[in-house]
Specification:
With about 160 residues, the chain is an alpha+beta fold. The protein has one domain: Electron Transport, Fmn-binding Protein, Chain A (Pnp Oxidase, Chain A, Roll), CATH 2.30.110. The protein contains three helices and eight strands; from the N terminus they run βαββββαββαβ. Strands 1, 2, 3, 4, 5, 6, 7 and 8 form an eight-stranded antiparallel β-sheet that branches. A hairpin with a 4-residue loop joins β6 and β7. The longest helix has 10 residues. The radius of gyration is 19 Å and the shape is globular. The protein starts with 9 loop residues before the first strand and ends in a 20-residue tail after the last strand. This is Pyridoxamine 5'-phosphate oxidase family protein. It holds the Pfam family Pyridox_ox_2. It comes from Leekyejoonella antrihumi.
């Protein structure tokens, strides 16, 4: 019988969630399109307590400004501490159109990774933010449920 017990998962404070989001550049935008969930990668920046991303006309833009709920998830791993984190924001999207807001937004360090025009700026207004952090177990402690044999070490 194994005596291994996994380390606890820590809940992050709101300020820790925002700090982690500031440390990452890529997240996954979850939207609903034609009644089906879609998860799309985006690069983003944190602007105070909102998320801003650039996009073109299309699925992301239409879904983000349709007035429905959306979510953003980002995560990371610190090899020095062997800790992983995940943050989820639930909220709504707003197309940035006011000239003053657009000027402020274009000064953010937000450059699209994908070539082509990305002239639409979307702000995610967070209604709820949650996060967690946990220590990543050494792969030598992992066991498959059927055979009990260890998983291959991570590469």
């Amino acid at each position: 019988m194994s005596t291994y017990s996994p380390p606890a998962v820590s809940t992050l404070t709101d300020s820790a969630c925002w700090a982690h989001l500031r440390s990452a550049a890529v997240g996954r935008l979850a939207v609903c399109v034609k009644g089906q969930p879609e998860i799309l990668p985006i690069n983003y920046v944190v602007d105070h307590t909102t998320i801003v991303f650039r996009t073109a006309e299309g699925t992301k833009f239409s879904a983000a400004v349709a007035g429905g709920d959306l979510a953003l998830e980002a995560d990371g791993y610190d090899p020095e501490t062997s800790e992983a984190w995940s943050v989820v924001i639930k909220g709504s999207g707003k197309h940035i159109v006011r000239p003053d807001d657009l000027i402020d937004t274009t000064e953010l360090p937000l450059l699209p990774w994908h070539p082509g025009p990305k002239d639409r700026f979307i702000r995610i207004l967070a209604r709820e933010i949650t996060g967690r952090r946990f220590h990543v177990a050494d792969s030598a402690t992992w066991r498959t449920p059927v055979t009990g044999s260890p998983h291959a070490p991570s590469e």
